[in-house]
Amino acid sequence: MTRRLALVGLGPGDPELVTAQAARVLNEVTYFLVADKTEQHPGTADLIAMREAICERHVTGEWRLVHVPDPERDRADPADYATAVRDWHEARAQVYEQALLDNPGDAAVLVWGDPALYDSAIRLADRIVERGRVDVAVEVVPGLSSVQLLAARHRLVLNAIGGPITITTGRRLLEDAADGDNLVVMLDGALTCRRLPDPSTWQIWWGANLGSSDEQLVAGRLDEVADAIWSRRAEAKQGRGWVMDTYLLRRH
């Protein structure tokens, strides 16, 4: 019998930012799968608690979380980054597949932000389908992304009039900034923008832990606020044990 596997975007963490569609789906499945990284990173227990708060707010009946130990990824800047990520995705697919085998019924994977933007849930689900050990029908429920919340908090239009916007990562920023002048940057723990040439020509709008009770916001000319952003980022990580941030760079 085919089971339902819903990849539900929860938004950045604030229960008020969960969509009505996401709330409906959460009430239709049997249990929720949640990545558990606490063995390697104890501070991330807070991320599970935030998911629990969302479920308590939006699920009217009984609910339960199934904790899925998240395999550690090779983050030592491997020579073949793409292969390291594919290996990690395969390891994740196996542990989620086992969780589905151990727990009958329809399930939802609780995804931060939007499953379609810099998240591996869709690839993970596709791999489970390809492996063929669990008969699931996969659906994707979009969520509010941190990029949208960043723009709202800073009262921004992400694109210039008639202009493009590039969404990239810290790993690719220096390369992409050479050809673009309007970039959203994600997954940048090193705050790579500090290495851009001519930082006085860039404006930055930065946000960390958006949607949480202690979100951080900084905006200004890059050469004037980069140090403050680095300091605020360190404070946010120390306070919670984790930090998720993103920023918009625009050449002026």
Description:
The chain has helices spanning 20-26, 45-58, 81-102, 121-131, 146-153, 173-177, 222-240, and strands at 3-9, 31-36, 65-69, 107-111, 136-141, 166-169, 182-186, 202-208, 216-221, 245-251. The chain is an alpha/beta fold and 252 residues long. It has a five-stranded parallel β-sheet with strand order 3-2-4-1-5, with helices on both faces. It has a five-stranded mixed β-sheet with strand order 6-7-10-8-9, sandwiched between helices. Helix 2 links the parallel strand 2 (31-36) and strand 3 (65-69). The longest helix is centred in the middle third of the chain and has 22 residues, at 81-102. The termini are far apart. The model has no long low-confidence stretch (mean pLDDT 93).
Q: Share of helix among residues?
A: 25-40%
Amino-to-carboxy terminus distance: 57 Å
Shape field: globular
Q: Overall pLDDT, averaged?
A: 93
The H/E string reads EHEHEHEHEHEHEEEHE
Strand content: 15-25%
Largest sheet: 5 strands, parallel
The helix-and-strand class reads alpha/beta
Strand line-up of the largest beta sheet? 3-2-4-1-5
Number of strands: 10
Q: What's the tally of helices?
A: 7
Low-pLDDT residue spans = none
| Cα Rg | 19 Å
Fill in the keyword field for this structure.
single chain, 252 residues, alpha/beta, 5-stranded parallel beta sheet, 5-stranded mixed beta sheet, 7 helices, globular
